[in-house]
């Protein structure tokens, strides 16, 4: 197997697994840039995956080929609503943000599995008939060398995720909204003095994180698992959280880290077809993403400082 054939397997698979992580890591970036720690990304992916699959199964006859995309909108809306619980608890009532995030993770899993059992009478949903499938992107796939590597046998969701990362970078660093969001995450008292509504901006950050986390779960469920059960989302939310930290709370950095972790996850799927990995026991490939996550966070990111007010509730008039 030549290098070209190997890359034609690795790159599309890496981008497929990276897409959900990119969306979710971007969501975490918006939340933490506003000053609210959100370790509930796993729960937001769970509720997004559940919503997307149930919506897809229910309305496939209505929306036809557009069903996966409309299902993402449903997952986005439910993810945003679910994150409202975290926002109310951590911003309005100034609860411990870590505890609130853990509660979101537990609540999402419990609610989703209860509803699956109630609706379908079993521990998992049916398999969807219309999900995101492999495509060759017109025109781009015909480009020599680059086309076969990046734009053939791939998924639209991968490039939508990359596009969202660029948009997130522009919003956070090039717009008035982004400036205000970063201000309330770094110096909320100074921002308040300048007339910025700290509470409102933090609500925006958390709701955006919920929306993007829901999309991440929806993409994973409809492109990779094709159904929803107790193990559909199993650590991807925490991996997205790690990607956000690895990327130093920067949208493009988070995207790069998500692609790296996507590559690590893809090894368990494509490892047996690669000449240099075919003799490695599959169990080692399965644990590779988590080992690489730990190594990356402990040894290779250097100094990574969170926004100064991240995790600190803001009380108007306090220092």
UniProtKB/TrEMBL annotation:
Signal peptide (from-to): none
Subcellular location: Cell membrane
Chain segments annotated as transmembrane: 6-27, 39-60, 66-89, 101-120, 155-173, 203-222, 258-277, 283-301
Molecular function via GO: transmembrane transporter activity
Pfam assignment, any one: BPD_transp_2
Keywords: Cell membrane, Membrane, Transmembrane, Transmembrane helix
Domain of life: Bacteria
InterPro entries the UniProt entry points to: ABC_transp_permease
GO cellular-component term (any): plasma membrane
Keyword field contains Aminoacyl-tRNA synthetase: no
Membrane topology recorded in Swiss-Prot or TrEMBL: Multi-pass membrane protein
UniProt key word Transmembrane: yes
Protein's name in the database: ABC transporter permease
Organism this protein belongs to: Cytobacillus horneckiae
